[in-house]
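Much of the work behind modern protein science is quiet bookkeeping, done one molecule at a time. The protein below has been through that process, and both of its lines are reproduced in full.
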Amino acid sequence: MFDVIGDIHGHASALKKLLDHLGYAPRDGAWRHPSRQAIFVGDFIDRGPEIPETLAIVRAMVEGGSARAVMGNHELNAIAYATPRVEGGSEYCRAHSERNRRQHEATLTQLSLIERTEALAWFRTLPMALDLGDLRVVHACWHESSLRVLSDLLQREGGLSDAAVRAMHDEDDPAFDAMETVLKGPEIRLPQGVTLVDGEGHPRRAIRARWFDVPSAWTYDAVIFPPSAAAPTIGIPASHQRELPAYAREAPPLFFGHYWMPATQAPTLLAPNIACLDWSIARGGRLVAYRWDGERTLEQSKLLWAPATAGRESHRAARTMTT
């Protein structure tokens, strides 16, 4: 059975605490469990203070057979940051802007050039998603048609080649929208002149959409995910509405990360078969795992976590929240 672990963002100390609590221990070069396997939802790098150790732990587990992992948007961002838009060109698939450099700075600072080169080569081996039949894992959004587009591209290119990376960052290529949906989640544009400020202080002109169920109303405050009091309570124009995947309740359990669930809120399930495991470890929140034993209906008590910093609550099973 599997222990699915959320976005780590360079917090190796929390990862080791969580692995220890889950019954994993260092053995034969990797953290291992006697009978279980971990699955990581991506976003190992950027922001945190222990990126080299985080990569060493995760990569050793994956290569040693005690874990699996999927691509996160930060891993693809790192690849794109190092991939020229044209062979030998000076512009990159991910622009070397001040904003992008700041987001990637912790990784650029903590890893040597050789370490970054090795990490990027490993990132290129990560799948975009895992469908294990009774269990699904993706970084941001499970969207069948987008996953098919990416699968076709990778098959055609023989993997995540430079050409595949360029296709994913060409707004005129179908792979661009597919990559954005799977690794970053669907977004809906805000009205002209309206912006929201994200957790890093950046103005955003689009909201991340609650894609996994049917919106209760086509208003920005009803569709935004995670919920935000800053979202305007006004209708979304038909021209800005978009088809959202609406993950079926009879579908296999789905786990994803990416969405910076509130650091001050105890981890909780989103639906009987859906769990977001990104609970803002890089903002003082928790590194969260779900201990899956084959159940079709997920159980609140199987959410486990470790805190971002010492002195906060120890790792423990989440309790069902009441209002």
Q: What stands out?
A: Confidence is low (pLDDT under 50) at residues 310-323.
